[in-house]
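lol forgot to send this yesterday, sorry. struct tokens for the thing we talked abt
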């Protein structure tokens, strides 16, 4: 009889992709996945540690699993497990702590795992990692979109970031492994494939022979039946002429890019140790917008970094106001133990950080409304997602440029591409109606 196993994911798309990889690896060993809120014999929590709040969410999820079934085996893996296994080991009820690479060894580790007074810790030195383990995925439960991990780790040492300590240096999956994965997902019926990684623009520089993200995209675009290909976050410095040409040259690549900014002040960017300045960022944003019609351009911004002055914040607001961005992810700075930023002078009062975050989120909403307003009166191809809007009960469709459109429709349309006429854009939602069904995902 198969064992029941439940997974919870805290954090980014890359974590989501890795959770699905673990689920399939364990399914091949006879484990049957059930929802996390149901009783299970094994619980796996794939953690994040990018902020202190993420650590708090990790611990909440761990304790939730223990309360759900105190007799179950509780496994904690991911970035928090890698960076602070001792903190997790102090939580009564945890049985196994597996690091960032060791998560791919769960099937073997679970074979002999039993309830323990103190957890088994399998966390290696991530700095010695030289590869990305291969793990095939053929389905994502409850999703119209599939995520493919192409790269892990990061070569940069930004002052605020703990990720290199959690995931190690940049390393890439071989192109054939990635392309084969996309083949399987397309054959399984997924309409959209999203490529994920920590430092995805660095893809291929560690491989032999050396390759590039642009070359990988060219191979993926040859996959028969591929509907839509989307890329996750890429740093400004990685946008070569070759990459921009590929991005602008294929209608199957979603006209959506997420390019982290973090600050509109060159002085703060230097303190952050970011590998670009505002001139480079602004020039790239304008070039991408000219090259890719109707581009949805997102940006991350950190507010309240140590030493950020009123003038620095004003420069950030002014730059964002001038950039062709369609949405913002605004993060309030908080210390992350083990980073350079935590040791910097000039930490700001919480009230100042909150006020600046509020102002920037308001600007982000204004930019989003302006962008979505330009979609009104036009027809867009959307992928109908597998969840309805919780407030209106309408279907949710995702455009290529990363706008969610709500519309009336039946469950049979979920997972399909539809032509939707956008009828209205309000402060918090975009509305539309079906023009005509397009093609099945």
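and heres what i got for the seq, position by position
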């Amino acid at each position: 009889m198969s064992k029941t196993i439940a997974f919870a994911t805290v954090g980014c798309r890359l974590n989501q992709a890795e959770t699905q990889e673990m689920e399939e690896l364990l399914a091949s060993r006879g484990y049957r996945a059930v929802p996390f809120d149901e009783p299970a014999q094994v619980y796996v929590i794939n953690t994040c540690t990018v902020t202190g709040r993420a650590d708090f969410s990790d611990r909440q999820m761990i304790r939730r699993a223990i309360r759900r079934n105190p007799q179950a085996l509780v496994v904690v893996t991911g970035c928090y497990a890698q960076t602070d296994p001792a903190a997790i080991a102090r939580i009564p009820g945890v049985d196994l702590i597996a690091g960032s690479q060791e998560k791919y060894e769960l099937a073997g580790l679970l074979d002999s795992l039993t309830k323990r007074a103190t957890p088994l810790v399998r966390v290696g030195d991530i700095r010695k990692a030289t590869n990305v383990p291969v793990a095939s995925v053929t389905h994502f439960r409850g999703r119209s979109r599939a995520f493919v991990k192409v790269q892990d780790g990061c070569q940069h040492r930004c002052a605020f970031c703990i990720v290199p300590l959690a995931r190690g240096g940049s390393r890439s999956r071989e192109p054939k492994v990635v392309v084969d994965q996309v083949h399987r997902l397309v054959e399984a019926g997924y309409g959209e494939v999203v490529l994920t990684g920590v430092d995805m623009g660095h893809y291929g520089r560690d491989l032999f022979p050396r390759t590039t993200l642009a070359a990988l995209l060219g191979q993926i675009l040859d996959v028969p039946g591929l509907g839509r290909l989307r890329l996750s976050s890429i740093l400004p410095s990685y946008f070569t002429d070759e990459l921009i040409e590929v991005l602008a040259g294929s209608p199957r690549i979603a006209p959506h890019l997420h390019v982290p900014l973090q600050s509109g002040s060159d002085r703060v960017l230097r303190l952050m140790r970011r590998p670009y300045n505002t001139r480079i960022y602004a020039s790239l944003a304008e070039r991408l917008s000219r090259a890719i019609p109707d581009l949805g351009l997102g940006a991350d911004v950190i507010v309240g970094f140590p030493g950020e002055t009123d003038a620095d914040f004003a420069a950030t607001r002014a730059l964002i106001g001038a950039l062709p961005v369609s949405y913002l992810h605004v993060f309030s700075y908080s210390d992350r133990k083990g980073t350079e930023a935590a040791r910097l002078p000039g930490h700001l009062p919480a009230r100042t950080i909150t006020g600046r975050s509020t102002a920037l989120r308001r600007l982000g909403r204004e930019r989003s409304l302006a962008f979505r307003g330009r979609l009104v009166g036009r027809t867009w191809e959307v992928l109908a997602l597998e969840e309805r809007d919780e407030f209106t009960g309408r279907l949710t469709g995702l455009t290529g440029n990363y706008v969610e459109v709500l519309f009336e429709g039946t469950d049979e349309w979920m997972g399909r591409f539809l032509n939707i006429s956008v009828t209205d854009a309000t402060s918090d939602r975009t509305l539309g109606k079906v023009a005509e069904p397009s093609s099945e995902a």
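The CA atoms of residues 417 and 439 lie 5 Å apart. anyway ping me if u want another try
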